[in-house]
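Write out the 3D structure for:
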Amino acid sequence: MVVGDLKTDQGIKSLNEYLADRSYVSGYEPSQADISVFESISKVPSANTPHVLRWYNHIKSFDGAERKKLPGEKKLPSGFAGGSAAVVNGAPTPAKESKPAPAAAEDDDVDLFGSDEEDDTEAAKIREERLKAYAEKKSKKPALIAKSSIVLDVKPWDDETNMKEMEQKVRTIEMDGLLWGGSKLVPVGYGINKLQIMCVVEDEKVSVDLLTEQIQEFEDYVQSVDIAAFNKI
């Protein structure tokens, strides 16, 4: 799709549609393309464009040094207003007008070697076989599984809560499509730490709301659960 001028509301709306099923502007990790688009936006997105707002806050979290280390070339991607070789001022670049081929000489109308119908039939047969083989190969490809990477903040009741035991309780939760990742303790003040733990879920199989409810059922340890980060993979 074409993303228009990012300094206009319509451009932000089209970017919101573009990011509906993407975590980043290009690829599966932040890059200089994200920085270029981020710097092209003139104001903070509103809650009416939730996908842009999620992406905007994520890119904003990188400081200047971290942004310079991101891979790629710093320019708007193809398909964005002002992007490379695709769009100018939000509209596709018109194709060059092709010149008509010179008329063939009258002598070319004379078929000196008979009809080419047999060659055309053979070419059409080969083309149909290739299309059929391509369709069969494509149908055998596994369907793309939508996944999300989530960081959860699990807060204890007080500084006397055994955080190691609390993490062990959280990791006992098992669901089809849930994979626990790394974790760390983050100070929140007054000697209290919160557990920050990452997980990857298959969107169609795991309900995030149900997951947080199950964690909160360990009420001897857990006071509350918040989502610190949520990104599509």
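The two ends are 20 Å apart (CA to CA).
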